[in-house]
Design goal:
The complex is a heterodimer of chains A (about 110) and B (about 110). Chain A is mainly beta. Chain A is built from no helices and 11 strands. In chain A, strands 2, 4, 5, 6, 9, 10 and 11 form a 7-stranded mixed sheet that branches. A 4-stranded antiparallel sheet of chain A has the order 1-3-8-7, with no helix packed on it. The radius of gyration of chain A is 13 Å and the shape is globular. By secondary structure, chain B is an all-beta fold. Helices cover about 0% and strands about 55% of the residues of chain B. In chain B, strand 7 and strand 8 form a beta hairpin. The chains are: A mainly beta (about 110), B mainly beta (about 110). Chains A and B meet through strand 4, strand 5 and strand 10 of A and strand 4, strand 5, strand 9 and strand 10 of B.
């Protein structure tokens, strides 16, 4: 069974640009969560989708948005990039997320110059 | 909102010494999970604790969930160089409908051979 796939692996953008990150969950998993990881801040929750609906949202500005498609694949968009958005963005999937473990992808390393 | 605190932030041990990381939540948890992230890698699930006072062991690793379901610990006996990495606890609030998994900032373990 293939794991969680995130693309691209690395991205370099400049301030003010926008970026879209992609996540393909494990086959059969319907829940996709996104986390931002920066040194010293750990994993900060962005949002979680289940069956194309956002079920939970973290404390991030509206520049961060996401969506989930009918095949459970998910995308995350960040508009008007700021230097502080440089981070590793991790996607994680689970079957239903309520009491299950998360399977993480390798992440997308975003650098904003 | 829910907060999960984890201490210490860093721990350097001599190979063969024991190691413990502690996790405290501001709210009662329905369950708590532990993840390990190797340098350059992504978080990998280790274990989930659900019951009050639960203790689980995995070889040299011992996990505990507090009686009040607000704290947890991970203890590694006789550390090895393969234990190097960052250990994260993650908890789900016991409130109805809560699917968000909140991570602590992690404890980075270094093992000196």
């Amino acid at each position: 069974k293939a794991g969680v796939t995130q693309t691209p692996r690395y991205l370099i953008k400049t301030r003010g640009q926008q970026v879209t990150l992609s996540c393909s969950p494990i086959s059969g998993h319907r829940s996709v969560s996104w986390y931002q990881q920066t040194p010293g801040q750990g994993l900060q929750f962005l949002f979680e989708y289940f069956s194309e609906t956002q079920r939970n949202k973290g404390n991030f500005p509206g520049r961060f948005s996401g969506r989930q498609f009918s095949n459970s694949r998910s995308e995350m968009n960040v508009s008007t990039l700021e230097l502080g958005d440089s981070a590793l963005y991790l996607c994680a999937s689970s079957f239903n997320s309520k009491n299950e473990k998360l399977f993480f992808g390798s992440g997308t390393q975003l650098s904003v110059l | 909102g829910q907060q999960v605190m984890q201490i210490p932030q860093y721990q350097h041990v001599q190979e063969g010494e024991d190691f413990t990381t502690y996790c405290n939540s501001s709210t009662t948890l329905s369950n708590i999970q532990w993840y390990k992230q190797r340098p350059g890698g992504h978080p990998v699930f280790l274990i989930q604790l659900v019951k009050s006072g639960e203790v689980k062991k995995q070889k040299r690793l011992t996990f505990q969930f507090g009686e009040a379901k607000k704290n947890s610990s991970l203890h590694i006996t006789a550390t090895q160089t393969t234990d190097v990495g960052t250990y994260f606890c993650a908890g789900r609030d016991s409130g109805a409908g809560s699917y968000q998994l909140t991570f602590g900032k992690g404890t980075k373990l270094s093992v000196i051979p």
